[in-house]
């Protein structure tokens, strides 16, 4: 079984790249299941909409995860309550619309659990991610409640992401970070068999400042005339990871960084 995880989709550029290429990339790479973090997919670069979600599902996405921008487009609150393929961080303060964990069954009757978490350091206030994770692992077991478990950890700092990776080592198939939009060069299998990468990167235009227009971003840093951040619109790169999974153990046999198109295609 091969799982493709794609990092934060940013604006129209990232959406278009997925809509135009995902089906062919799934076939080329023999992908069985696709998870996409869509929290920056809206035209403004923050949040996502019902229409974007439905377009993603039509082009081959199985599950959409999110993060701190999940509620930035208000219509998503009602939609998320009725769409179990769209997740929000499980450790958001309760009660909150939607849910942060679900088990999905593919056409081969394989059960894939997807857990969406958000970090506590330099992020919006939410429940303690390690307490929530500990409680989760007491209630859910690999190869009992699901065949595979993928954890999207939406966090700001690398140390917190590293720690979550080790916390889930041997208990999840993949732990992958999102939020910082820059892919890290540390894809590996941890000691107890969990695939890990600190950040998957983004699906967006890398001729930018983390997906946002570079000239406007520079002006903001230099306190020159500028506007609110808005996404860059050049050719996007799809960034993420592909994991080969062992159906017997629920752990990973192999992980590789995935980069397709755009500014990063030749690196």
Summarize the structure in words.
- This protein is α/β, with parallel strands linked by helices.
- It has a single domain (2-262), classed as Metallo-dependent phosphatases (Purple Acid Phosphatase, chain A, domain 2).
- 24% of the residues lie in helices and 24% in strands.
- The chain has six helices and 13 strands.
- It has helices at residues 11-28, 50-58, 76-82, 129-139, 158-167, 214-221, and strands at 2-6, 8-9, 33-37, 63-65, 101-105, 111-118, 148-154, 174-178, 188-189, 195-197, 202-203, 238-245, 252-260.
- Strands 5-6-7-8-10-9 form a six-stranded mixed sheet, covered by helices on one side. A five-stranded mixed sheet has the order 4-3-1-12-13. Strands 2-11 form a two-stranded parallel ribbon.
- The longest helix has 18 residues, at 11-28.
- The radius of gyration is 17 Å and the shape is globular.
- The two termini are 27 Å apart.
- The mean pLDDT is 96.
Rounded Rg: 17 Å
Domains (count): 1
CATH architecture: 4-Layer Sandwich
Q: Predict the CATH topology.
A: Purple Acid Phosphatase, chain A, domain 2
Main attributes?
267 residues, alpha/beta, Purple Acid Phosphatase, chain A, domain 2, six-stranded mixed sheet, five-stranded mixed sheet, 6 helices, 13 strands
Compact overview of the structure:
The protein is of the alpha/beta class. It has six helices and 13 strands. The strands form three sheets. Strands 5-6-7-8-10-9 form a six-stranded mixed β-sheet, with helices on one face. It has a five-stranded mixed β-sheet with strand order 4-3-1-12-13. The protein has a two-stranded parallel ribbon with strand order 2-11.
């Amino acid at each position: 079984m091969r799982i493709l995880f794609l990092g934060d989709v940013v604006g129209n550029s990232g959406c278009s790249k997925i809509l135009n290429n995902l089906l062919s990339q799934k076939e080329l790479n023999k992908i069985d299941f696709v998870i996409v973090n869509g929290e920056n997919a809206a035209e403004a670069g923050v949040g996502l909409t019902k229409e974007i979600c439905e377009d993603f599902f039509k082009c081959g996405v199985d599950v959409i995860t999110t993060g701190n921008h999940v509620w930035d487009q208000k219509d998503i609150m009602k939609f998320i309550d009725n769409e179990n393929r769209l997740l929000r961080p499980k450790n958001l303060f309760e009660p909150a619309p939607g849910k942060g964990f679900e088990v999905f069954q593919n056409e081969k009757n394989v059960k894939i659990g997807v857990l969406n978490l958000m970090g506590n350091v330099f992020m919006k206030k939410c429940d303690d991610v390690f307490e929530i994770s500990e409680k989760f692992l007491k209630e859910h077991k690999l190869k009992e409640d699901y065949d595979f478990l993928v954890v999207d950890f939406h966090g700001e700092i690398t140390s917190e992401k590293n720690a979550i990776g080790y916390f889930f080592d041997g208990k999840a198939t993949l732990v992958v970070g999102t939020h910082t939009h820059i892919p890290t060069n540390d894809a590996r299998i941890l000691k107890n068999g969990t695939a890990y990468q600190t950040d998957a990167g983004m699906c967006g235009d890398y001729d930018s400042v983390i997906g946002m227009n570079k000239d406007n971003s520079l002006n903001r840093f230099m306190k020159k005339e500028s506007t609110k951040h808005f996404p860059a619109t050049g050719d996007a790169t799809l960034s993420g990871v592909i994991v080969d999974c062992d159906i017997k153990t629920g752990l990973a046999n192999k992980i590789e960084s995935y980069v397709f198109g755009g500014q990063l295609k030749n690196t």
